[in-house]
Amino acid sequence: MAAKWVGRCPDCGTWGTVNEVAVLSTVHGAAVRRAVAPASPAVPISSIDPGATRHFHTGISELDRVLGGGLVPGSVTLLAGDPGVGKSTLLLEVAHRWAETGRRALYLSGEESAGQIRLRAERTGCSHDEVFLAAESDLQTALGHIEAVQPSLVVVDSVQTMSTAEVDGVTGGVTQVRAVTTALTMAAKTTGVAMLLVGHVTKDGAIAGPRSLEHLVDVVLHFEGDRASALRMVRGVKNRFGAADEVGCFLLHDNGIECVADPSGLFLDQRPAPVPGTAVTVTLDGKRPLIGEVQALIGSASTGSPRRAVSGIDSSRAAMITAVLEKRAHLSVGSYDIYLSTVGGMRLTDPSSDLAVALAIASAYADIPMPATAVAIGEVGLAGDLRRVTGMDRRLSEAARLGFTSAIVPPGVKDGPAGLRLLNADNIGGALRVLREIADNKG
């Protein structure tokens, strides 16, 4: 740095390489920057029309439930899920229902040809003249399709297969995915088109690509399902236009996908009479109460390390409940092989299912069947105490709606819906006594 012009660089000795650079004036060490007039002035929040973010129904009730009422013009929604779970089938159904209302939809596929999508449309009954297809993986060409078709809904399947020549990096890489998502988001905001993006996931279940991808979009949905089951769930992770903890249930068939408005029956085992080792609980998936059944089987006593096989329940929590039963309820179950499972592929991660797991194990150990008209809701502590869980009113209302007549609940739960008898238990020992009483009285 020199205070005045010099023709020759004092360091390398080269002539004509020293350039003059203006230095910003500073006040107390901070650079002084001039204010720039904004393109649009700030306005009072009360003067903004809330109708600009009105939801438009997709025609699929369970998806509208998760979205908060439907798709908002100019919004960008990211739907991520495992390969083959049914993302393309669901979004093709969305495009078809959208076109049936007289609106135009554009389906951009970077993974399949237009012929393949046409075959799926024929199989699922999603052929409509207002659904336009284009097999395209170049971003600029895809934006050209949007400008030419003038749709109100655009489906991009998938964002990881799109690429642009304006930035470096391989297709699906961090740089490419960020650039493509930014361009598509800008197109949605400027044209008012509702944009649906399909996203890939890693083997750990996280959305592939940069973490900023989830910050760029307005709504993030996870599409979940087990290949061994037809049940599929769309779970809200982020939603700028509604609640972010809603869950939608679907059934995937060969001829398409259908909504399941009342999925509780899918998680109950149908049998003519109750058998030992089963207990029913009510879990909350987001804001949605779901009935779930826990099944337990006590094997033979093991001389070595007893076996613990768990499906649909957290294994560490099941081990904790087993220890509580042995220490606090004095049931010698620790030396036996224990097998735990849920019905219908349901996953019980809510602590409210602790009491049902404990009663199922105790029922299998004592060979006492729990009545089919009773549910158990509550968290089990290490001291053997029972604790209340959130959303108890919704859980009890769902149990009463499905015909259950009694509920074993923690202390402090006093008010229940009509027709549902509340049986309070202070601890796990009290819950086992209540179980024996209702078993003797047949519920």
From TrEMBL:
<protein>
    <recommendedName>
        <fullName>DNA repair protein RadA</fullName>
    </recommendedName>
</protein>
<keyword id="KW-0862">Zinc</keyword>
<feature type="short sequence motif" description="RadA KNRFG motif">
    <location>
        <begin position="238"/>
        <end position="242"/>
    </location>
</feature>
<dbReference type="InterPro" id="IPR027417">
    <property type="entry name" value="P-loop_NTPase"/>
</dbReference>
<dbReference type="GO" id="GO:0005829">
    <property type="term" value="C:cytosol"/>
</dbReference>
<keyword id="KW-0238">DNA-binding</keyword>
<dbReference type="GO" id="GO:0003684">
    <property type="term" value="F:damaged DNA binding"/>
</dbReference>
<dbReference type="Pfam" id="PF13481">
    <property type="entry name" value="AAA_25"/>
</dbReference>
<dbReference type="InterPro" id="IPR004504">
    <property type="entry name" value="DNA_repair_RadA"/>
</dbReference>
<dbReference type="GO" id="GO:0005524">
    <property type="term" value="F:ATP binding"/>
</dbReference>
<keyword id="KW-0227">DNA damage</keyword>
<feature type="domain" description="RecA family profile 1">
    <location>
        <begin position="52"/>
        <end position="201"/>
    </location>
</feature>
<dbReference type="GO" id="GO:0000725">
    <property type="term" value="P:recombinational repair"/>
</dbReference>
<feature type="region of interest" description="Lon-protease-like">
    <location>
        <begin position="337"/>
        <end position="443"/>
    </location>
</feature>
<dbReference type="GO" id="GO:0016787">
    <property type="term" value="F:hydrolase activity"/>
</dbReference>
<dbReference type="InterPro" id="IPR020588">
    <property type="entry name" value="RecA_ATP-bd"/>
</dbReference>
<keyword id="KW-0067">ATP-binding</keyword>
<dbReference type="InterPro" id="IPR014721">
    <property type="entry name" value="Ribsml_uS5_D2-typ_fold_subgr"/>
</dbReference>
<keyword id="KW-0863">Zinc-finger</keyword>
<dbReference type="InterPro" id="IPR020568">
    <property type="entry name" value="Ribosomal_Su5_D2-typ_SF"/>
</dbReference>
<dbReference type="InterPro" id="IPR041166">
    <property type="entry name" value="Rubredoxin_2"/>
</dbReference>
<keyword id="KW-0547">Nucleotide-binding</keyword>
<feature type="binding site">
    <location>
        <begin position="81"/>
        <end position="88"/>
    </location>
    <ligand>
        <name>ATP</name>
    </ligand>
</feature>
<dbReference type="GO" id="GO:0140664">
    <property type="term" value="F:ATP-dependent DNA damage sensor activity"/>
</dbReference>
<dbReference type="Pfam" id="PF13541">
    <property type="entry name" value="ChlI"/>
</dbReference>
<comment type="similarity">
    <text>Belongs to the RecA family. RadA subfamily.</text>
</comment>
<keyword id="KW-0479">Metal-binding</keyword>
<keyword id="KW-0378">Hydrolase</keyword>
<dbReference type="GO" id="GO:0008270">
    <property type="term" value="F:zinc ion binding"/>
</dbReference>
<keyword id="KW-0346">Stress response</keyword>
<comment type="function">
    <text>Plays a role in repairing double-strand DNA breaks, probably involving stabilizing or processing branched DNA or blocked replication forks.</text>
</comment>
<comment type="function">
    <text>DNA-dependent ATPase involved in processing of recombination intermediates, plays a role in repairing DNA breaks. Stimulates the branch migration of RecA-mediated strand transfer reactions, allowing the 3' invading strand to extend heteroduplex DNA faster. Binds ssDNA in the presence of ADP but not other nucleotides, has ATPase activity that is stimulated by ssDNA and various branched DNA structures, but inhibited by SSB. Does not have RecA's homology-searching function.</text>
</comment>
<dbReference type="Pfam" id="PF18073">
    <property type="entry name" value="Zn_ribbon_LapB"/>
</dbReference>
<keyword id="KW-0234">DNA repair</keyword>
<dbReference type="InterPro" id="IPR003593">
    <property type="entry name" value="AAA+_ATPase"/>
</dbReference>
